[in-house]
Amino acid sequence: MRPFAAAVSARGVSTTAAAxxxxxxxxxxxxxxxxxxxxxxxxxxxxxxxxxxxxxxGALNALGVSTTALSLNPANMALARVYHLEALAAYSPEAKxxxxxxxxxxxxxxxxxxxxxxEGTWSEFDPSxxxxxxxxxxxxxxxxxxxxxxxxxxxxxxxxxxDLGVGPFGTSYASDGGNGPLFNGVTFDAGATVSVLDGLRxxxxxxxxxxxxxxxxPIVGAAGVGYFTPTFAIEGDGSLDFTxxxxxxxxxxxxxxxxxxxxxxxxxxxxxxAGTKINSPSLGFGYIDPNWSIELGIRRDIISEHAETLGxxxxxxxxxxxxASPPEQNQQLLQ
Length: 335
Hints:
Elements: H1 4-7, H2 12-27, H3 39-43, H4 51-55, E1 83-92, E2 97-106, E3 115-125, E4 132-145, E5 149-162, H5 173-176, E6 183-197, E7 200-207, E8 220-228, E9 232-241, E10 249-260, E11 264-273, E12 278-288, E13 292-300, E14 309-318, H6 330-334
Antiparallel strand pairs: 1-2, 1-14, 2-3, 3-4, 4-5, 5-6, 6-7, 7-8, 8-9, 9-10, 10-11, 11-12, 12-13, 13-14
């Protein structure tokens, strides 16, 4: 078992890149002007902007294990033997959005084959305008049923606040939602993933299944089909948002990943959102060591009057109770 200090002793270049991006986040013009995007774009269904998912156009409901599974499909936590710790930060200059989070997933340090994880994020957008902030805490479990099926669920506590007196009618319930938080409640997600063939997975997942009745925690159903090998992964997903727009509006997502030299991941993806009617290509990069990783994802809206750019950076530490994983297992660490 390696101590954390040894695991990150050779991370010089990666640490510099992380410091530069985080410096941009903290020093950027977040408070200079109101945001130039719509609230729906900035809030983005309250999704956690994980860098790997961001780089693949959001298409990771079938293949996204580890910490990604906590916010996308909790069933996938049981599909890889990992103990991962992750810290992430995300920033959008147009939405004046910032997100910071921590997550941990464990499917190694127990003998029951039950995987579990915890994740917490804090976000804000438009601090010079409506200034919406939200805290999102999740705890999830997953269990494999034989070799082909995995089931999982996540309990989510969400609290959303927004400044008073910034709507068109001043301080009022119609424009601000009252004196308390816009939303403060508990809901849950549930998912299932089937491993049809070696490397081929099909997944279905539902989000906010208690039906909170608000676009801050919309009911969303999603499905995905993905295929991976030690050198590449591809996936296509679709989802339906039943709350935000008053009727069901869908998203189509597709992405791919190429794994080079047992260390480097190159990603690209595309998302079309029928609610905002926006196309969004994305790119991502990851450096994956047997003990740690640094990953970056960037998405940019196109063909839009109010285009948004969103970037996300994460640092992950891989604890391996049995010793360092061999290079051929790094594809699992990526997920």
